[in-house]
Amino acid sequence: MRVVLQRVTLASLVINGAEHAKIGPGVVVLVGIEPADGAEDLAWVSGKLVRLRIFDDADGVMNLSVSDTQGELLVVSQFTLHASTVKGNRPSYTRAARPEVAQPLYASFLKQIETDLGRPVASGVFGADMKITLTNDGPVTILLNSKQRE
Questions:
Q1: Active-site residues: which are they?
Q2: Helix (H, G, I), strand (E, B) or coil at 56
Q3: Does the pTM of the predicted model rise above 0.85?
Q4: I need a labelling partner for 56 at 20 to 30 A (CA). Which of 31, 69, 102, 127 fits?
């Protein structure tokens, strides 16, 4: 499972010209699922996401998590995070899980985050053409890969 986290001051997600989700200060989470991902990957990434200290404390030090700050989350499925660009100029997405595998895992991941965070999160719609507008705060952008935990 590959994840890109972006600390934001605000973000919105539009589908078919209509606003579907909007958050204030918090994190936009782009999630790429691969066929080998399972419950352990979801739990590890979710736990890391809600506990990662990427928000400033009173001294201006990144020492607070999204849980600590009561920040919001916008979680979006993005199979292109598994793009391979080794051969040619057209990315290959064969490392990304097929929709019949990825969609239930994405739904489980959303539930896991809500459980770990203790509140609902905003999300995109699996497979939809989405437009995301965000203001990256910092900027702070972090990559997580559940296959590289050490």
A1: 78-80
A2: strand
A3: yes
A4: 31
